[in-house]
Amino acid sequence: MGKLIVNEWMTLDGVVQAPGEPEEDRSGGFEHGGWHMRYVDDAFRKWMLDGLTSAGGFVFGRRTYESFAGHWPNAPEEEQPVAAPLNDRPKYVASTTLSEPLEWQNSTLLKGDVGDALRALKRDQAGDLRVIGSAALVRTLIQLDLVDEYQLIIDPLMVGGGKRIFPEDGALRSLELVDAQPTSTGALIATFARAGT
């Protein structure tokens, strides 16, 4: 049985929106796109590549899937260490607006209830499933108690607003710190697991 692991690049105030590019996601008037890039160092690169190459498959919401599908299948040679696992491994997409066939190789649209579909995948999957980005989907997965682990890089800045992954539903969810490592740029790479798992 595989775990469902959430991978996110996050500000100290919990924002995950548009970490990589200025124009990545300007929805809601977000003006701080690309905030993470000044915190990239070798520790971050290793953490990111280790996460990608150890994944048994990936889970995406529609927006993240469309963004990744528009870039990674045709990524330049220098981006192939990142592109290869994303292109080669199975990808599962939670969407009510997309229809099959999905163009990006090894991509499958999740059918029916997303919770039921992912419970079945976790049960049958040999390796761990990793959710990248996909803030709205991650909030749903947290509320459904499907997330086994959070692997985060938390940058030492606040952006004052934007998309977050943690639901504001008043529920108490206990976590255990599994690992923490500061980077040379002041970011913190941290892994949290559900308490008792």
Structure characterization notes:
With 197 residues, this protein is of the alpha/beta class. The chain has a single domain (4-185), classed as Dihydrofolate Reductase, subunit A (3-Layer(aba) Sandwich), CATH 3.40.430.10. 25% of the residues lie in helices and 23% in strands. The chain has 5 helices and 8 strands. It has helices at residues 42-54, 62-69, 80-88, 114-124, 135-143; strands at residues 4-11, 57-61, 91-94, 107-109, 129-132, 149-155, 175-182, 188-194. The protein has an 8-stranded mixed β-sheet. A hairpin with a 5-residue loop joins strand 7 (175-182) and strand 8. The chain is globular. It starts with a strand and ends with a strand.
Indicate the topology.
Elements: E1 4-11, H1 42-54, E2 57-61, H2 62-69, H3 80-88, E3 91-94, E4 107-109, H4 114-124, E5 129-132, H5 135-143, E6 149-155, E7 175-182, E8 188-194
Parallel strand pairs: 1-5, 1-6, 2-3, 2-5, 3-4
Antiparallel strand pairs: 6-8, 7-8
CATH topology: Dihydrofolate Reductase, subunit A
CATH top level assignment: Alpha Beta
What best-fitting shape do the alpha-carbon axes yield?
A: globular
- Strand numbers in spatial order across the main sheet: 4-3-2-5-1-6-8-7
- Rg on CA atoms, Å: 16 Å
Straight-line N-to-C gap = 13 Å
- Tell me the number of helical segments per DSSP (H or I, 4 or more residues long): 5
The chain-level mean pLDDT equals 95
CATH architecture descriptor: 3-Layer(aba) Sandwich
Tally of strands: 8
CATH superfamily: Dihydrofolate Reductase, subunit A
How much strand content do the residues show? 15-25%
* Backbone structural class: alpha/beta
